[in-house]
Design brief:
about 210 residues, alpha/beta, 8-stranded parallel barrel, 9 helices, about 45% helix, globular
Length: about 210
């Protein structure tokens, strides 16, 4: 497993449908001080995901950042991404580890049992959610809310890898989420759909530093 300090407290999940759209939104995120990017293109073919990943690697790494690819483990390994994020219906963490080696592997969870499974599989971080309804993801799992986060995390007991909140998070939620014990937040629409993505990122960076260190 990677050092937990390598897992960013602020993570960005792309929303664009094309490599060009994604390159523009990631440029704004990096300009605003963000450093962790998850490339998510659920409906695109592997060749398009690979094109987008290759396009992002140079600017993300030039900023000292991390590029995670959602789901497409073989693509991530081929292009030299820093890791992968696996949904509940994606490749197992064990299979991904066999392909990716020491790369970062994250997993999605919605319950304490999901977290227990992910921990047993040796993942490096967990994306727990959704916090509230979000239109950026299909087949949304049951919404947790702040109380749900507290309940799930307290049920897990043992020391956990970093747990990142995800799902409809806005700047106004940062203090509430920090109090639940999560490591940080992953955001998409709150930055991508803002009038000024650079300024929105700067605000999230400021709040992340304030509440998560």
């Amino acid at each position: 497993m990677v050092d937990r300090d390598k897992i960013a407290h602020l993570q960005y999940i792309t929303t664009g449908a094309t490599p060009a759209e994604i390159a523009r939104e990631v440029a704004s995120f990096l300009c605003g001080g963000g450093r962790w990017v998850q490339l998510r293109m659920k409906d695109a073919p592997d060749r398009t995901v690979a094109e987008a990943a290759e396009m992002l690697l140079v600017p993300v790494h030039a900023c000292g950042g991390v590029l995670i690819v959602d789901d497409r483990v073989e693509v991530a390994a081929r292009v030299g991404a820093d890791g992968v994020h696996l949904g509940r219906d994606d490749m197992s963490p064990a299979e991904a580890r066999a392909i990716m080696g020491d790369a970062i592997i994250g997993a999605t969870a919605n319950t304490a049992d999901h977290i227990t499974e992910a921990v047993a599989a040796g993942v490096d971080y967990i994306g727990l959610g959704p916090f509230r309804y979000t239109a950026t993801k299909k087949r949304l799992a049951p919404v947790l809310g702040a109380e749900g986060y507290r309940t799930v995390l307290s049920s897990c007991g043992a020391e956990l890898p970093p747990v990142v909140a995800i799902g409809g998070i806005t700047p106004d939620d940062m203090d509430t989420l920090a109090a639940t014990g999560v490591w940080g937040v992953a955001v998409a629409g709150a930055i991508a759909r803002s009038a000024d993505a650079v300024a929105a990122t700067e605000r999230f960076v400021e709040l992340t530093q304030k509440y998560f260190g």
